[in-house]
Amino acid sequence: MKLSAILKAAAVASTLTLSSFVFAADIDMNADANDVAIKGYDTVAYFTQGSAVEGSSKYTATYKNAIYQFSSEKNRDLFRSNPEKYAPQYGGFCAFGVTMERKFDTDPTAFKIVDNKLYLNLNSQVQERWLTDVPGFIGSADGIWGDIKSKTDAELEAE
């Protein structure tokens, strides 16, 4: 499947998914209808274990009105001590999507740590494209994020 077709399908899925969310989390945070970020995956584990690990509702912390879940008390406490260090970039939206001025949902297993920052992608196919020029895409997304973070994906699609 061509990348353009994948991204078009992603845009439709993202719009349907995100538009169905009415959540209290800040608009610049990717959270589900229950305000849970990263689909409940432990954001600290990406850094400490180098893998996507599911968190538990037993260990939670709130950051920017989104609820993060952790696999252990230790990870929760690490996050609480420095949430900016562990929270995903671009509010947990797809790093490649931000380069296209869009806010796509992510697959928590499609991740990469770059310069001690967590980046998530829509899925492994989109991540393959993102990995072809990580520094360029990060530079582009960093420049775009400030302009789009306060808009919904539906608003961005309509522009």
Provide a descriptive summary of the structure in words.
Residues 44-90 form the YHS domain. This is YHS domain-containing (Seleno)protein. Keywords: Signal. With 159 residues, this protein is of the alpha+beta class. It has one domain. Helix content is 43%, strand content 16%. It has eight helices and four strands; from the N terminus they run H-H-E-E-H-H-H-E-E-H-H-H. The chain has helices at residues 3-19, 43-48, 73-81, 83-86, 95-99, 124-130, 134-148, 153-158; strands at 56-63, 66-70, 107-114, 117-121. The strands form two sheets. The chain has a two-stranded antiparallel sheet. Strands 3-4 form a two-stranded antiparallel ribbon. It starts with a helix and ends with a helix. Residues 11-24 have low confidence and may be disordered.
Q: What does the largest sheet look like?
A: 2 strands, antiparallel
H/E element sequence = HHEEHHHEEHHH
Looking at the structure, what is the overall shape? globular
- Assign a percent range to the helix content: 40-55%
- Please report the total strand number as a whole number: 4
Distance between the termini: 27 Å
Proportion of beta-strand residues: 15-25%
| Helix segment tally | 8
If strands are numbered along the chain, what order do they take across the biggest sheet? 1-2
